[in-house]
Amino acid sequence: MATRRLTVALPEELVEALGVVAAEDGVPVSRLVADATERGLRRRLGQHLLVEWQAEHGAFTPDELAAARAEMVAADRLLTPST
Q1: pLDDT by residue (tens digit) across 17-26?
Q2: Whether this model's pTM surpasses 0.85
Q3: Tens digit of pLDDT for each residue in 47-79?
Q4: H/E element holding 12?
Q5: Distance, CA of 69 to CA of 54 (rounded, Å)
Q6: How far apart are CA 82 and CA 18, in angstroms?
Q7: Contact by Cβ (8 Å): 19, 30
Q8: Closest among 7, 24, 60 to 32, alpha carbons compared
Q9: Residue 6 region, left (φ>0) first, then alpha (ψ -120 to 50), else beta?
């Protein structure tokens, strides 16, 4: 993937936190920022798709929402390393 240099302004505390996490993970700060940006864009797209689906098919029922939440919790458990 091609990269492009971009200048952004971030709060000092956020920059410091990014530096700490990048050092802990052994990755460049730019990788953390790119990953977070990609997740945010994917989340936004997902939200847009949900709104479109509900506009066409109606709102989710409480049972459907509960089932979705349960699946997300189960997926989080699979992806989160145990300590």
Answers
A1: 999 999 999 9
A2: no
A3: 999 999 999 999 999 999 999 999 999 998 888
A4: helix 12-25
A5: 17
A6: 23
A7: no
A8: 24
A9: beta
Confidence of residue 82 (pLDDT cuts 50, 70, 90): low
End-to-end Cα, the chain, rounded Å: 34
Does 11 score more than 90 pLDDT? Answer: yes
d(CA 51, CA 53): 5
35: part of which helix (H) or strand (E)? helix 29-57
Distance CA 31, CA 22 (A): 8
